[in-house]
Amino acid sequence: MNAERLLAHFEQISEAPDAVARLRRFILDLAVRGKLVEQDPEDEPAEELLASVALEKFRRKSRESRIAGGLLPRDRNYVQPFSLHAGWQWTTLEDYALDVSTGPFGSMLHQSDYIVGGIPVINPSHMVGGRIYADAKVSVSPGMAEQLESYKLAAGDIVMARRGEVGRAALVTEAEQGWLCGTGSFIVRFIPEALREYVLLFLSSDLARGYLTSNAIGTTMTNLNHGILKKAPIPLPPLAEQHRIVAKVDELMALCDQLEAARQEREQTRERLVAASLQRLNEPAEDAASFRQHATFALQTLPFLTTTTAQIKQLRQCILNLAVRGKLVEQDSEDEPAVTWLLQRLKDSSPGRTRKPRVKVIEEGNDEVLALLPESWLWVVLDDLIESMDSGWSPQCEDHPRSSMECWGVLKTTAVQSLSFDDRHHKELPSKLQPRPQYEARQCDILVTRAGPKNRVGISCVVGQVEPRLMISDKIIRFRVADEINPRFVALALNTGRSGEAVEQAKTGMAVMQMNISQVKLRAVPIPLPPLAEQHRIVAKVDELMALCDQLEQQLSQAEQQRRRLLETVLAEALAEREPVLEELVRT
User: Fold this and answer.
1) Which domains does the chain have, with CATH numbers?
2) Half-sphere exposure at residue 24, Cβ-oriented, CA atoms within 13 angstroms
3) pLDDT tens digit string along 126-148?
4) Of 67, 155, 234, 480, which is least packed with CB atoms within 10 Å of its CB?
């Protein structure tokens, strides 16, 4: 693995959703392993820096402590997660920092002590990107600050989160001098020569976060104690190399910012193109020929622009909208108009008199809605198409045992998906209950969810082949339409467009609890009715385009998995190299 290979693959792997975030972590990992910049044998070894820290600690100790403890810290057997370059040294935060202290206990600082516009108190939420962002509402009076004198921050300190996100830390600058460490934070203090920026870099690395996470206390919210933090292992480079590492990390992180901005711009461009195409398809068309030309172009192009499942969902909805507006397939002048069939049906159902279709559900003044349909189409109410309608059965305990050993089940509402029937969603009927064959779901039944959460009520689908024998529950409405009508077109219409809006408006109840839709209101839902032959062409085209959407989703999933695997491979191989593999990124 070399830099050239990383660069050759980066354009591809950068499309992975977390590619830039992974690259940032990868850069930090290289940095703390000594693989980001070259080593210089002339650099003063890190042990000299540690000796300076030990000497300063010695100077601060009392005479008795000096005699008992000696000049330098005793030899320690540090945990070594990996081998280091010459001049580097494994140490801990306890031995590298002058002091590691915890913020005030909760009994020393209460919520009632906070004022607005006082001396800021720094908690984990105020540490963002290595900097401190104070909240004016989280501050105390000068008098309270004097009581908490030992918790005041000094320029050059690192304040670090004790709870929540592990590794969150920020550098205290002159502007934050004298502010207070909060109860959820640590103060880490160093000798003047120490490079704080390298410590912040280390705390953001997977090495530090992995150690802190694995040793943290708590499940709902992770917590670190003083002892855990002090034992954090640090791979310490020579001071001169630390400066080179920090400069190189800053340079590469700026490059990552550019890569992320470029990726976001690409995504936004795709989003705008997809949104514009879908909006134009959903708007009324002045010229049928130009609209059909645009629709053909859009449906051929959108698959290449679609890169997210959300966009595919929009594409599916657009296909359905086109279907119920008569824009998905061409009309055939030879098709018998819908009104001819409907008038004959109404005449046959009422011998001796002719009943008009009840299109009055489309209120007067809705000429724009009526004009959306082709001339051979007709607005009707669902009731004009229904042969039978009923609700299901709520199983109750019965006195007599089942007379048959035949396996039966009861459908759950989750079996009804938008345009998709899934008979796997059922519960087996207990042996103590008798089946009710009159509620059995049969092929070509149209099912509508009657009760449940708002987003689950009013969904419709058509029953396919069922195995085993299944009954509908009382939370499902079941109806059948006239034999000539394509039930899948009716279900399609109920899920989108003007019909879908009417179903939504027919719902009653508490949205956050349970909603319902009645048979009476469902019967009154308006349906755009095409000629019988066109219904079949529409359903076939919808099936064809939905299969394309399924393929797109599968391709997106496979492509994302491939990018992730490639990203893992490239970064793992790069990390295994001993030379700095990202050097070329800056020069290209």
Assistant:
1) 92-237 (3.90.220.20), 259-328+541-562 (no CATH), 338-530 (3.90.220.20)
2) 15
3) 999 899 999 999 999 999 999 99
4) 67
